[in-house]
Structures
1.
Amino acid sequence: MLKLKHITLSAFEIINDSGTILIDPFVSLNAQYNYRNSKNISDIFVTHGHYDHVGQTVEIAKNTGADVTAIVDVAAYFQTLGVKKVHPVGIGSWLNYDWGRCIFLPAIHTCTLPNGASGGVAASILFEINGVRIFHAGDTSLTVEFKGINEVYHPDVALLPIGGIYGMDIEHAVIAAKWLGVKMIVPMHYYLPPVIDVDPRDFAKKFEETDVKCVILDNENDELLLK
């Protein structure tokens, strides 16, 4: 069993047989979401240090005992805030877990921590779980790195930012999907008031005459079954 749930902005749950993985848990933006209702949150992954991606990582990690994995500079920040199980990593090597594996990959974006310090580099993350490869692009511009990710890793599903301003807009995300070679896309990072308010249906329309499936996970109970 493998399910995907979009919480808000770039925050997702990946639900697998052994439990739940959280990505970029800025969950306070969704008043309907309660992480305490999730099944066994084992791991939290953070793509970069901006507040809307760090989110409630510290609170959730302390209350659930979840492991936190992030680029070394962001990981050090979590350690200063008392998170016990922190895994500092770099970009470019597979990381093994009980549920599968993942790899941190490049993203073109800034990375400042909530305290104003440098958070090192921003990242994207590719997960391999139950034979399915899910690519979370993080915050990024359109980059030729997507072509290399397609060639080397062959992702099945891409979670792509479409809101513009701080990263890709719809026009560039459509190109990113093509370069990644995926057959399924879930849009993200399209609602952050008052700056970003994009309708994901405008993005989905771009794929109506193609063999790429665009899935919008907007409602509280929406879950995408991947396997």
2.
Amino acid sequence: MERLQKVIADAGITSRRKAEELILAGKVRVNGEVVGELGVKVSGSDIVEVDGVMINRDIVKKYYLLNKPRGVISSVSDDKKRPTVVDYIDTEARIYPVGRLDYDTTGLIILTNDGSLANLLMHPTNKIPKTYIAKIEGLLNKDDIDRLRSGVMVDGKKAYVENFKIRDKNLEKKTSIVELTIVEGRNHIVKKIFEALHHPVIRLSRIKIAFLEIGNLKSGEYRELSIKEVKKLYSLK
């Protein structure tokens, strides 16, 4: 017996968190009966429907790593008809992005139809490290550096940077290139950290998720993850 939201996520419909929202919204049926609460478990013989469509519980799991270009939405679809990360992957699988990058942020994002892995990577207790390169306005002073080391107050709560280094400084243009690693998943957290330091982000790119690095992936390019890499991601729990 498995929890209903896990079964939905594992079928590649959506993430486990979104599956829970679908259940609470009354959009899921088990053996013809609407299930409107969490905690329900189902067996392999139970028929599960989402929005009236019976799910396939024997799907092949797919895992992709994409270097997201600027101006692309981290979603399966967009009502404004803007390009999405899914548009860049040549697959018949019903994949979706794990987490998100802002419209104007570039870099690594994982896409999969494996709800269990997506849940693992997004759950805050697992503290999956992500490394970014930020071009910011201004030059960091000693107070800025001390605050980065001790935590920066963002929306009433401290945001912590695991480690950081100043890659470059342009004294003439008064800009800096900073590499930093965080484990937080709050929306726009990197931008908000630098805004709190009065150094707005000019450009932002994610170059690493856990042990997965951007490598030779050019903007808009992707690759499949190996079985070894997928197992290693699961071991991060």
3.
Amino acid sequence: MEQTERLATFDQLIPPESKILLVDADTAFLEEVSKNLKLHKSIVHVAHDMQSAMSMGLTCSYDIVIANADLPDGSGIHLIRSIKSDQSVHKFVIVDNASLVALKIMALEAGADCLSKPITSGELLLRIRHRIEEDKLLSPGKYYYPREEAQEAPFVIHIGKKDIYGPNQEPLKMTTNEFQLMTFFARHCFETLSRDDICRNIFKAPWNYDDRRVDNLVAKVRKIIEPNDDMPSYIKTVRNRGYVFVGTAEIHETTDAHPSLTVMETPKSAENLSLSTET
């Protein structure tokens, strides 16, 4: 029951009638994933080996392909490379935890998200949702969903007073760095900000791969502003690129009696884009 309720959040995130190909020799796993995907009106085809999957790929164009790296008659990585070259397809390869790093790199080079066993059906669906959501950020015209009610009310930021209020008009307690990050996001709503952009703006230094300050700061802000920081509604992760703030904000620049007010409006390209959870 709990898992079914969690999966209900996919209703607006997997486009109806998406065509999905599952390729795995594990019959029980295929049945579980297939059942959950069909709950969300997806069209699901299953194959137990590479040859069957290749035949299906010749007769049907899929939106999502999920293949085990180790198939009875070949490699799942070779399959996703061969079955479709269209960049719009979402590719996933499931590998064993003991697999060589080189195998995982090959999966990434093939344009696939690499998932490690053991993986539950719920986790797999969550990764699908994240991948689709990232694609919506990069190609906003490809998807249409009604805007979420949660996004209608803006955050209100008073720069001079260093006060910030949530969409429910309640004051939010933030440290200086947290406030600066939220203001930076609000000034660049619906723009993908790299970790280097954030690091230079907040910490006045370039970002490097060993620097976790940006990710830790984003996590702290999420805990403050998100209704559920495990499934963020406002600050999204854009894979391999950075973060994007998808809310709206009113920014009061001064503490004067009649402060200048900047309203951060949703860009026209995102007016009909409803974005939900991303970790």
